[in-house]
């Protein structure tokens, strides 16, 4: 489908097939079209071109109430004058085929599942943010819909609650086995909760795949830089006769990389911070360094307890134009200002076409 708002193309030619029971996460930078995609599936917007099917049925002209979906948004508006019980029960109001007793029983069952049974007779303003979020979830799942649509449902919660709700949401989804489309710009949520991730940029689908597939085999520079925290290092340069050269580095390609890169000249080297190995500078200084080793200066160290993010620059790079960052275990002591030996295993190197961003290797 394509969705335009006047001159703005919010989503362009998106084609996505989401199997039954899948947990699909839509990620991408602000304004890339995530919410618009979700709103089109929900029926809150209609596509400018293309069609949306749920369970094989064409949805374009169907109102949201008749799509058998449940939505949870970031600003999960609960009705303030209703109790928790009434708020959850409200999700069932439009459903026919339930007796009043069945509705009550279903509300109790869902409340139990979400751990909010003791709060059923309170008003929303007597609940914490996380508890309110659970009520909003309860209201959505009480109907047992065909599809869950969630737009940043955890973004108003603090870090601890977020982590807790992340696990709970996953367990819920596993239990109900409901096809879910989940929008977030949070990496951790995307990586840990999804069966597959779809990465959008400027309204265009960049890649869709399992989290580790996107991490290990990104199809382009955008996906490579977007997935992974801290992000992949990129060094722009030239490839000639099997050797990569940038202003400060020279890196020989092994035959595997050479075969893939072919005669492309303008390339970008990509290396994940966790694939950079740091060693002490040997007694003899830089002499005796191997092909894939470089002498670099530590400019900044960010300790995170379990690990350090170490910022490095080439000793002669006064402008720090080719700064790279590496990850070391928290127990490794590295001091700013010292020189170290950095090595990059050719097996871990990614190479992109500088012009198109397409992954070559
Ligand atoms: P965010 O992460 O910031 O919520 P997003 O990826 O969800 O962003 P969308 O909200 O889908 O992005 O917006 C995609 C593009 O469409 C943006 O350029 C936005 O300004 C535009 N857009 C969205 N809704 C409308 C609208 N109702 N009218 C005009 N332009 C819109």
UniProtKB/TrEMBL annotation:
It is a peripheral membrane protein. It is found in: Cell membrane. GO terms for biological process: carbohydrate transport. Its EC number is 7.5.2.13. It is an enzyme of class 7 (translocase). InterPro entries: AAA+_ATPase, ABC_transporter-like_ATP-bd, ABC_transporter-like_CS, ABC_transpr_MalK-like, ABC_transpr_MalK/UgpC-like, Mo/tungstate-bd_C_term_dom, NA-bd_OB-fold, P-loop_NTPase. Its main location: membrane. It holds the Pfam family ABC_tran. SMART domains: AAA. It catalyses: L-arabinose(out) + ATP + H2O = L-arabinose(in) + ADP + phosphate + H(+); D-xylose(out) + ATP + H2O = D-xylose(in) + ADP + phosphate + H(+). Keywords: ATP-binding, Cell membrane, Membrane, Nucleotide-binding, Translocase, Transport. Residues 1-227 form the ABC transporter domain. GO terms for cellular component: ATP-binding cassette (ABC) transporter complex, substrate-binding subunit-containing. GO terms for molecular function: ABC-type transporter activity; ATP binding; ATP hydrolysis activity. The complex is composed of two ATP-binding proteins (XacJ and XacK), two transmembrane proteins (XacH and XacI) and a solute-binding protein (XacG). Part of the ABC transporter complex XacGHIJK involved in the uptake of xylose and arabinose. Responsible for energy coupling to the transport system. Belongs to the ABC transporter superfamily. Carbohydrate uptake transporter-1 (CUT1) (TC 3.A.1.1) family. This is ABC-type D-xylose/L-arabinose transporter.
């Amino acid at each position: 489908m394509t969705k335009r708002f006047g001159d703005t193309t919010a989503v362009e030619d998106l084609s996505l097939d989401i199997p039954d029971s899948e947990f699909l996460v839509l990620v991408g930078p602000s304004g890339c079209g995530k919410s618009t995609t979700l709103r089109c599936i929900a029926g809150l917007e209609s596509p400018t071109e293309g069609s949306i099917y749920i369970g094989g049925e064409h949805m374009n002209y169907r109102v949201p109430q008749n799509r058998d979906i449940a939505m949870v948004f970031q600003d999960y508006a609960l009705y303030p004058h209703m109790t928790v019980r009434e708020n959850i029960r409200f999700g069932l109001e439009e459903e026919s085929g339930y007796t009043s007793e069945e509705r009550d029983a279903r509300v109790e069952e869902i409340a139990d599942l979400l751990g909010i049974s003791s709060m059923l007779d309170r008003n929303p303003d007597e609940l914490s943010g996380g508890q309110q979020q659970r009520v909003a979830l309860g209201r959505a799942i009480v109907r047992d819909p065909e599809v869950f649509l969630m737009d940043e449902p955890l973004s108003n919660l603090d870090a601890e609650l977020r982590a807790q709700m992340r696990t709970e949401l996953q367990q819920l989804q596993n239990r109900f086995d409901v096809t879910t489309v989940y929008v977030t710009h949070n990496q951790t949520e995307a990586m840990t909760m999804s069966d597959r991730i779809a990465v959008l940029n400027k309204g265009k689908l960049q890649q869709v795949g399992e989290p580790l597939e996107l991490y290990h085999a990104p199809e382009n520079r955008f996906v490579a830089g977007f997935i992974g925290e801290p992000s992949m290092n990129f060094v722009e340069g030239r490839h000639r006769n099997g050797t990569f050269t940038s202003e400060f580095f020279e890196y020989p390609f092994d035959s595997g990389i050479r075969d893939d890169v072919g005669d492309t000249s303008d390339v970008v080297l990509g290396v994940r911070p966790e694939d950079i190995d740091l060693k002490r500078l040997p007694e003899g200084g830089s002499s005796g360094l191997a092909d894939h080793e470089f002498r670099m200066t530590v400019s900044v160290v960010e300790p995170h307890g379990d690990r350090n993010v170490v910022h490095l620059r080439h000793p002669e790079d006064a402008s720090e134009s080719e700064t790279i960052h590496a990850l070391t275990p928290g127990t490794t002591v590295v001091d700013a200002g010292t020189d170290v030996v950095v090595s990059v295993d050719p097996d871990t190197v990614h190479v992109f076409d500088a012009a198109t961003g397409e992954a070559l290797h």
